[in-house]
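Good morning C.,

I know you're traveling, so I'll keep this short. The sequence:
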Amino acid sequence: MTEMVIRHESNKTSGRYVIDLGDGKIAEMTYQRINLCKIAIDHTRVPPEFRGQDIAGKLMHHAIEQARRKKDKIIPLCSYVQVQFKRHKEWADLLAD
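The tokens, ready to paste straight into the viewer:
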């Protein structure tokens, strides 16, 4: 696996950020759209054999960039995302009330 390309798939009510890891395996971060400017990230998954390579971190940073660009606020339902918000105080402005 060389460069990790993050693909965004979405519809009116939900979406996900996906990295194709090869051999049919993917890493993903899923969310539900709550309203026009709020999403709830509810799941992050990286196959066990790919953990420890900051793949979830890449998905998280992509989600943060997208939220900033779209002026979305984030509800961190996923435990991974909750921990990342605690570690990155500079993202506090993106937390939904």
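Safe travels,
E.
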